């Protein structure tokens, strides 16, 4: 299911992103036991090679991180993930999927990007020219099975540390020893 969101944020007046973090999906993480013992998806095989095999074998040299834009890195991971997928009868490991998993790429549909861009431009135009009331402040757009949009006013949290403008009290203890020298170098 694909959902896209559009926000209008007026600092101090409307809810900020921090107020509504619970509306955003959490990052997908696979349990290590699934990756190691019972992979079911091509993504599981790719993650296993990335997390378990690569640190043991150092295929790119010691201390070299995976570069999602380096064709050699992606090709090696893809080849090893394909071997693992074959062991478990899993199909679908390819270069494009491997790069997508390594770089956490979310596929984008050009028409959806165009719709969201048009909605953003319309809201900016309304805000600048005052020709019409701006939207409530949050729009959800889904085009996975037809077209569905829903606009609502995201609520501002009273205790939001970013936009509430309420002072946050913290207790900090500082210990100072007047007899200790704080110089680090002698000249």
UniProtKB/TrEMBL annotation:
Gene Ontology annotations of biological process type: protein neddylation
Organism: Clytia hemisphaerica
Keyword ATP-binding: yes
Keywords: ATP-binding, Ligase, Nucleotide-binding, Ubl conjugation pathway
Enzyme class: ligase
GO terms assigned for molecular function: ATP binding; NEDD8 activating enzyme activity
Catalytic reactions of this protein: ATP + [NEDD8 protein] + [E1 NEDD8-activating enzyme]-L-cysteine = AMP + diphosphate + [E1 NEDD8-activating enzyme]-S-[NEDD8 protein]-yl-L-cysteine
The protein, known as: NEDD8-activating enzyme E1 catalytic subunit
PROSITE patterns in UniProt: UBIQUITIN_ACTIVAT_2 (PS00865)
């Amino acid at each position: 299911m694909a959902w896209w969101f559009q926000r209008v944020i007026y600092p101090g007046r409307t809810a900020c992103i921090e107020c509504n973090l619970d509306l955003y999906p959490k990052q997908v993480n696979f349990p290590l036991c699934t990756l190691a013992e019972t992979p079911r998806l091509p993504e599981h095989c790719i993650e296993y090679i990335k997390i378990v095999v690569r640190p043991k074998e150092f295929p790119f040299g010691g201390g070299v991180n995976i570069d999602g834009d380096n064709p050699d890195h992606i090709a090696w991971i893809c080849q090893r993930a394909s071997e693992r997928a074959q062991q478990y009868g899993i199909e679908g490991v390819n270069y494009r999927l491997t790069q997508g998993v390594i770089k956490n790429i979310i596929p984008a549909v050009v028409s959806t990007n165009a719709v969201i861009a048009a909605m953003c431009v319309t809201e900016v135009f309304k805000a600048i020219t005052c020709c019409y009331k701006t939207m409530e402040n949050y729009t959800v757009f889904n085009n996975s099975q037809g077209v569905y949009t829903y606009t609502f006013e995201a609520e501002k949290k009273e205790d939001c540390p970013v936009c509430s403008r309420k002072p946050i009290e913290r207790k900090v203890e500082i210990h100072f020893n007047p007899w200790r020298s704080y110089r680090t170098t002698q000249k």
